[in-house]
Write a structure and sequence with these properties.
It is a single chain. Helix content is 46%, strand content 20%. With 289 residues, it is an alpha/beta fold.
């Protein structure tokens, strides 16, 4: 087992994907899974089948920010790779991430690059910088960026007291975290020669589709307003959330006319998520199905 790295996953009923990931790495890395569905059967199954794997069942659904903080606290290795189960990456790519992290001594977070950036881009560059001339930067096409969204490779000793903001339940917490690292003078890098695939909503079985839609309806809107208010002020937050507010009202109106009860409910949840965030009420919504 490579003792330098711990893989951390925040999961909700993603046993089918975690099996594939753990099988691919063949017990080479310590793996910590925070299973937010509270399903102890998943814990017993994965821990029995894969050694070096620890499945933590919390007392409640923690959401992503608290799960990552728990994973960082539990990990004893030099490096930690934070992920959701809806990603695919090769063992060789993991080895290259470790190699790059060992060569780049001071950084806040590194991340591999999505295979198809037109579909999903996990970084943002706000300011173009001069490319470094070191061999590792050229070989792996490493570029400094301003924000990273998930798939974060971290050296615990570099981040100090910077942790995830636990006011978030889902969405925007990784952007918030990496922006905080950046503001505290810690560099963020995307490694373009190391690729991964992002599966998106397939991290959950199809029977959870409605749960995903309802969860996203509330928490995406809550987190979006909170993120922009926290980092850029109230006026920009209002400007950013206003299109979502109009979208929610339109959904409520048309769903009422067409008697689509589910879409009406989703529209109401979107609206409640926005208003809750504007009123500085913590994100309380936890759908069960």
């Amino acid at each position: 087992m490579n003792k330098d790295l711990t893989l951390v996953f925040s999961s909700y009923q993603s046993k089918h994907l975690l099996q594939k990931i753990l099988k691919r790495f063949q017990n080479k890395y310590k793996t910590i899974i925070i299973e937010n569905s509270l399903d102890t059967k998943i814990k017993f199954f994965l821990e029995k089948k894969f050694k070096n794997t620890e499945v933590i069942i919390p007392k409640e659904n923690l959401g992503l920010a608290k799960s990552y903080n728990l994973g960082l606290k539990k990990a004893k290795s030099k490096f930690v790779f934070l992920n959701n189960p809806d990603m695919e990456i090769t063992d060789n790519s993991i080895k290259n991430l470790i190699y790059c992290a060992q060569k780049i001594k001071k950084f806040g977070a590194l991340s591999p690059c999505f295979m198809n950036e037109k579909m999903y881009k996990n970084y943002e560059i706000l300011k173009k910088r001069k490319q470094k001339n070191s061999r590792v930067f050229k070989k792996f096409e490493i570029e400094e960026v301003d924000l990273l969204d998930n798939n974060l490779f971290i050296k615990k000793g570099n981040i100090g007291r910077d942790i995830f903001d636990e006011n978030y339940f889902l969405f925007f917490e990784t952007l918030d975290f990496t922006r905080k690292l950046k503001l505290n003078g810690k560099k963020l890098y995307i490694i373009k020669k190391i690729k991964f695939n992002h599966l998106g909503a397939s991290s959950l079985p199809r029977k959870f589709d409605n749960l995903v839609k309802k969860t996203r309806a509330f928490h995406y809107n809550w987190s979006k307003f909170y993120f922009f208010k926290k980092h850029f002020g109230l006026m920009l937050a209002i400007k950013k959330i206003f299109p979502n507010f109009l979208k929610a009202l339109k959904k409520i109106f048309f769903s009422s006319v067409t008697l689509n009860r589910f879409n009406l409910y989703v529209g109401l949840i979107e609206l409640i998520g926005i208003l809750t965030s504007v009123l500085s009420i913590k994100p309380f919504y936890r759908p069960k199905k």
